[in-house]
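Quiz preparation item.
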């Protein structure tokens, strides 16, 4: 103490301060001390609450005593040791219950820390403030306050500098191939404010997650921004990086993606602060972002993955508004729909450039696969042929009937997709080869069949079923001279019915198909005579268009064995199955075809292995025998020759004897023949052969001859073990492009893409006007109003 002045030392927030009260001890009150402390720091007394404590000068006392009244304060001031020293006073600051402490900084300019006021300014009871032994700490606090003020004024500039600095660091990392450790640390925990809790952006990405290109990252961010109602600003976007942050300056959300080293287009996530510290309510003060075609395409990718069939633009408008709360125009919905289809189809130009590498990998993963590409003199694509090794090997277990047809591509380029397919014994499609030709002409068909002949040689057992395309007919006759060629009955019936007049054309088509499927010559000739009499014009056209060659369409006159096949429905169903794929680019289309064939192989492999050992025939033939067995028991079979197994089969009477008025059928079990000719053509026992089979096993029960098995009467192609062999191999898909290992000589081969089909109509020469633009009105050649002439004026 100096005279009547009182010196107080206190500690607040870990720093030592002093007060000099120029008044006597008896006049000092608790409110005065608290007011002086608040004045020292520039605090509003209404905003804070101060709590004063000290340890009394009592032996073995370590507990604090609280100064709660003026008497407590006088007790503290009067407690001194023999040297005249007073104990340390501790001041604790807490926020007032009525106002938050965040508003304390309003009086920074009025703070008296480190300043001594004159008596004229503060009166007789003034307090002189000074820092005792903590001058450096006080100076640091002043520097921090000044720095915070500067940061608030220059916040925008600092954000820009920070973004540029991160971009430069990222460039250095990408060049060296190394990543900074702090780039992968989780963002700091953001303390929740009293108004809004931090919330996630809904991106669901992880650090170092890769994307095929920068466009994919942009679409992902756009979709999440619309779904979770937040906006963002673009900090940096170029070929090497993509940096965005929240549009609110104080929000911590940020995402940075950069190009992956030694890749062409791939991007990966380098920094992601997923928590937003801003409020969604403030979005109303920000200009709403518009929906784009990319947003529509991203939505369709998620809701209709891999599907070309999407809703109409009107429905897409409602879907976008429901999902994202954004209104889009009809044209935006249409452009997004088309972009979704384009993303599925892929880039046609890139498909042609990668074709050789793709075929190399296809042959590598599927042993025995045959592929070939033909270019024209200028190096442009002409033809493509693919025959998978699994199907080539499995065809040995198939009936030797091949259907061939072509269908037009819908990917904006000229060409046709060609299929050569067989049918397995259970009547499933079995694709043998497929390819792409420029069109259906003699050169293209000859080239395709020459390559097909390299994997399926010419044979008299071989049968081709096609439509009546002239180039196709000539190619089959030229390349496969020993094979038999039949016309599709369905296509021919559609042509024949159009030449009939004054009749129901559907009836004409039906009668023609029924006539072509008769098994006996007598039945066919009777039906043909009736057809000529009822439909003379259609019959005349039939003779003219087939050159009167009935063996090309009539089953009874066909020289080969075509079993139940008389149409090209196998390849027609393939054309329908791959209708969406025909709109893809070349390589995506091939991927879709191979994936579907692989799926069929897996399904039929499991189906063939699902039966029990007791079943020897395929399910289709097994069920057919089951249905005919009941009818066969109603027939009467008589053995004619026990050594040659010849039988006569007629209908039974009610007493079980033969009906002499019914038609007789001769059955030869050794030669697998019946006079009805069904057994001969189908290679499956007819109902008469089943009756003879029952008679043979019944009459030889007690003899030394072994009983005949039903499987002995069926062609070996219908045995279930042969059916299993057709699907035993696995068809593998071509791996992702990043896993391709292609020799340099294959990479060096180049293919020039075909020219796209030009759009119909007159070519546009003037550009379309953009938004806000308008066509200037014509000033010349305007038609003037008709000027009336006043006669006699």
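Solution:
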């Amino acid at each position: 103490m100096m005279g009547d002045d009182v010196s107080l030392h206190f500690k607040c927030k870990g720093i030592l301060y002093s007060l000099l009260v120029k008044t006597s001890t008896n006049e000092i009150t608790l409110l005065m001390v608290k007011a002086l402390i608040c004045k020292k720091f520039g605090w509003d007394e209404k905003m804070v609450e101060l709590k004063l404590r000290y340890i009394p000068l009592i032996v073995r006392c370590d507990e604090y005593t609280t100064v709660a009244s003026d008497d407590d304060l006088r007790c503290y001031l009067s407690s001194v040791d023999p040297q005249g020293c007073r104990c340390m006073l501790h001041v604790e600051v807490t926020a007032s219950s009525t106002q938050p402490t965040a508003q304390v900084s309003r009086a920074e300019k009025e703070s008296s820390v480190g300043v001594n006021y004159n008596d004229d300014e503060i009166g007789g009871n003034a307090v002189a403030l000074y820092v005792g032994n903590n001058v450096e700490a006080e100076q640091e606090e002043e520097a921090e306050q000044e720095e915070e003020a500067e940061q608030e004024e220059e916040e925008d500039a600092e954000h820009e500098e920070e973004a540029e600095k991160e971009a430069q660091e990222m460039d250095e990392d990408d060049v060296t191939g190394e990543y900074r450790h702090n780039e992968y640390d989780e963002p700091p925990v953001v303390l929740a404010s009293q108004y809004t809790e931090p919330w996630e952006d809904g991106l669901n990405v992880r650090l170092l997650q890769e994307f095929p290109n920068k466009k994919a990252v942009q679409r992902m961010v756009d979709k999440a921004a619309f779904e979770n109602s937040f906006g963002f600003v673009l900090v940096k976007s170029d070929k090497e990086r993509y940096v965005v942050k929240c549009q609110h300056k104080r929000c911590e959300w940020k995402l940075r993606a950069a190009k992956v080293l030694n890749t062409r287009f791939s991007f990966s996530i380098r920094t992601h602060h997923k928590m937003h510290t801003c409020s969604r309510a403030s979005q109303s003060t920000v200009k709403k972002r518009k929906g784009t075609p990319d947003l529509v395409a991203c939505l369709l990718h998620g809701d209709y993955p891999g599907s070309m069939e999407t809703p109409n633009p009107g429905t897409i408008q409602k879907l976008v508004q429901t999902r994202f709360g954004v209104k889009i125009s009809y044209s935006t919905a249409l452009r997004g729909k088309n972009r979704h289809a384009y993303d599925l189809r892929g880039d046609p130009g890139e498909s042609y450039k990668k074709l050789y590498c793709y075929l190399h990998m296809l042959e590598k993963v599927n042993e025995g696969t045959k592929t070939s590409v033909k270019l024209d003199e200028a190096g442009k694509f002409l033809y493509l042929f693919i025959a998978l090794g699994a199907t080539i090997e499995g065809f040995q277990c198939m009936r030797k009937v091949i259907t061939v047809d072509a269908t037009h591509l819908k990917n904006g380029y000229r060409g046709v997709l060609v299929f050569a397919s067989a049918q397995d014994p259970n009547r499933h499609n079995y694709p043998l080869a497929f390819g792409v030709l420029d069109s259906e002409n003699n050169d293209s068909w000859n080239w395709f069949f020459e390559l097909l002949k390299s994997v399926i040689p010419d044979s008299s057992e071989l049968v081709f079923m096609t439509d009546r395309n002239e180039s196709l007919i000539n190619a089959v006759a030229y390349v496969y001279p020993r094979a038999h060629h039949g016309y599709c009955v369905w296509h021919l019936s559609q042509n024949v019915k159009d030449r009939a007049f004054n009749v129901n054309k559907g009836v004409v088509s039906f009668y023609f198909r029924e006539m072509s499927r008769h098994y006996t010559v007598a039945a066919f000739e009777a039906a043909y005579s009736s057809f000529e009499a009822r439909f003379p014009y259609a019959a005349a056209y039939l003779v003219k268009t087939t050159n009167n060659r009935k063996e090309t369409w009539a089953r009874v006159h066909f020289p080969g064995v075509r079993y139940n096949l008389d149409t090209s429905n196998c390849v027609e169903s393939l054309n329908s199955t791959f209708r969406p794929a025909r709109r893809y680019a070349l390589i995506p289309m091939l991927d879709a075809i191979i994936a579907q064939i692989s799926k069929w192989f897996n399904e039929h492999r499991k189906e063939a292995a699902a039966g029990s050992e007791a079943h020897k025939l395929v399910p289709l033939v097994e069920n057919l025998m089951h249905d005919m067995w009941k009818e066969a028991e109603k027939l009467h079979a008589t053995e004619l020759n026990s050594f040659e197994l010849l039988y006569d089969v007629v209908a039974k009477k009610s007493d079980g004897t033969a009906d002499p008025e019914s038609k007789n059928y001769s059955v030869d079990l050794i030669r697998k023949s019946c006079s009805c000719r069904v057994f001969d053509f189908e290679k499956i026992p007819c109902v008469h052969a089943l009756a003879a089979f029952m008679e043979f096993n019944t009459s030889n029960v007690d003899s030394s001859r072994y009983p005949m098995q039903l499987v002995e009467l069926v062609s070996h192609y219908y045995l279930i073990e042969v059916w299993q062999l057709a699907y035993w191999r696995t068809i593998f898909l071509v791996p992702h492009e990043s896993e391709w290992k292609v020799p340099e000589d294959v990479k060096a081969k180049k293919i020039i893409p075909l020219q796209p089909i030009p759009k119909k109509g007159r070519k546009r020469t003037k550009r379309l006007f953009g938004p806000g633009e308008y066509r200037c009105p014509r000033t010349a050649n305007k038609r003037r109003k008709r000027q009336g002439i006043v006669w006699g004026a």
